[in-house]
Amino acid sequence: MVSVLLDFKGTKIREYCQSKLDSGIDPFEIFAELQLGLEEIGKGYEDPGFRRYFNSDLIVSGRNMKRAIDMLKPLIPTRNDGKGLVVIGTVAGDVHDIGKTIFAVTLESDGFLIIDTGVDVPCERFIAAVRENTPDILAMSSLLTTTLPEMNAVIQGLTNAGLRDNVRVIVGGHAVTEGFARSIGADAYGRDSIEGLRKCRDFMREKA
Amino acid sequence: MPGLHAGKGMKIFFLFSGPFGEQIINTISLGGLGQQVSGAYELRPEQILVPGGDVPGPDSLFENPERYIPADFPETGADLLIVLGVHGHLSDLIPCIARRLNVRSVLYPIDDRDTIPEARKTIADELTEMGVHVEFPEPFCSLSRSSDPLIGEFLKFFGRPVFGVSTDIRSGRINRVEVLRDTPCGSASCIAGKLAGADTNDLNSLSRFCYDEQHNDEAENYCLAEMDPRYPLMQEAGDLLKDALFEGCSLTSTKGTLLSFLERSGETGVEDLAVQVVGLPSGKGTSGCVTRRAFDLYLRELEEEYRIVITAQNTVKLA
Fold it and tell me: What is the mean pLDDT of each run of 10 residues along chain A (208 residues)?
């Protein structure tokens, strides 16, 4: 799995996904398997005792995950069964989209409706998206610690615009911690896409 | 004897790890030196785990490196050993591997802090004692000259990028870009293929295109160096690429800006000069560079070329 994600040419990932699809494996299951591989590389990169994966491994595996998402996403049924509407995006100053996209696909496959605002999303655009779409949940991602204040700015902006009480806010991404999420007044922190999904389900249960 | 193996008969062996190494081997093999590759071996830390799953400590590797060379390491020879992205912990094996391969030169580029050899000086001393020339370019694409004939031969193909650009005199648009020397990662060739029609009068766009494309992971080849702002190797590589293109287009590169400023202002403090040249606010380094690392490199080169003098008081003046 890891070697598939680390293939710089990107041919192995396509072959891997295709062969799994050909053997009748559910596209979301393939997606989830790849996520485990990505997590393993991430752990190897962050291991304080012995870093086994480097910057280049993160870049290449991220690129391959994007290739897999491009291939698998159209095949993952979007249930759209009215579980909830989520506006999602990566905050301004940060162009990383893998974590955000993985979370979006995970939510979508669980029946949430997604409005993906993309990456490097300015505060005003998040607020406008909430005003225009009245989502149940706003999900923000940030990989870089330098862009963390943007999350705070968006929450403050929602409050100032009188929109905060109508939307639950979940934050996640490499730079975010549970403590940070609490300190800026977010409703939840998602350590990974599965925990994020669980919390979004909780939001919708509370709302029902 | 170093030198005997230079030229077309030179054999290259790669010791690598991960996609960083694979991309460079691919570029070098397809970019003119394929016939000269005698072999490649991927050395990952997992291969030399000691019982219990731990990686052997630096002491044990240093004291008995032979013991840790994997059993399937190929029995082959080479003139030039290129070490790519191998974990810094494993660097004590390099002299031993160099001996096995009977190489004359070692190129040990550093494009990530985690690959910095833990005992760099010891390794360099040991290789030198063996009569093996070693260089540690940081990043790989900063390599532009060498006293070693084997590395010199390598530099005819790969290293700091060099472009030959033909432009339409009337419109200033690029007609054709020839890559005279590619970056080892191959990003220079990738960018060159996309430059036809670019306007050399629009410095901001040309510069931004260069920086963006250099690490564009949608491209076939792109820079995989470390990008941490505290160790901005990728950004430095971007500076080198942008300046190479500007030089190819006969536009003012960072070195030209440096010299012009000194001509206008006379003797200037290094730090004051850096303020003028590094991270210029008008676009991403249109006439300067983004990183202090590139600035320092250019300054060293200009001094070596006897074009400037750096004084003991840390000021710079034209020679």
Answer: 89 94 92 86 78 85 88 78 87 86 86 91 96 96 87 96 95 90 95 89 88
Structural domain boundaries enclosing B283: 252-319
Q: In this structure, is residue B230 part of a structural domain?
A: yes
Chain B hits for A55, Cβ within 8 Å: 112, 114, 224-228
Residue B286 lies in a domain: yes
Q: Which residues contact B125 (CB under 8 A, 6 or more apart)?
A: none
By C-alpha distance, the chain B residue nearest A50 is B55
Both B78 and B173 in one domain: the answer is no
Last residue within a domain, chosen from B200, B234, B251: B251
CA distance A200 to A86: 9
Q: Would residue A4 be called left, alpha or beta, if left means φ above 0 and alpha means ψ between -120 and 50 degrees?
A: alpha
Total tally of structural domains belonging to chain B: 3
The chain B residue lying nearest A51, using CA atoms, is B114
The answer to whether the CB atoms of B217 and A7 lie below 8 A apart is no
Q: Look at residue B7 and tell me if it is in a domain.
A: no
pLDDT tens digits, residue range B236-267?
999 999 999 999 999 999 999 999 999 999 99
Cβ of B275: how many Cβ atoms within 10 Å? 11
* CA distance linking residue B206 with residue B192, whole number of Å: 12
Q: B44 and B137 share a domain?
A: yes
Tell me: cis bond preceding A135? Omega within 30 of 0 counts.
no
* Digit-coded pLDDT (tens) for B18-38: 999 999 999 999 998 999 999
User: What are the φ and ψ backbone dihedral angles of B179, each rounded to 5 degrees?
Assistant: -90, 105
pTM of the prediction? 0.83
Domain harbouring B31, CATH code: 3.40.50
Note whether residue B5 is domain-resident: no
Q: Supply the CATH number for residue B211's domain.
A: 3.30.390
Instruction: Determine the residue among B26, B43, B50, B114 to mutate to test chain A binding: the one whose Cβ has the most chain A Cβ atoms within 10 Å.
Output: B114
User: Of the candidates B44, B85, B89, which has its C-beta nearest A56's C-beta?
Assistant: B85
Strand runs labelled E in chain B: 12-16, 37-42, 80-84, 105-107, 133-135, 162-167, 174-181, 268-269, 308-310, 315-318
User: Do residue B236 and residue B275 come from a single domain?
Assistant: no
Please state, in angstroms and rounded to a whole number, the distance separating the CA atoms of residues A102 and B45: 30
Structure tokens at A81: 């069964």
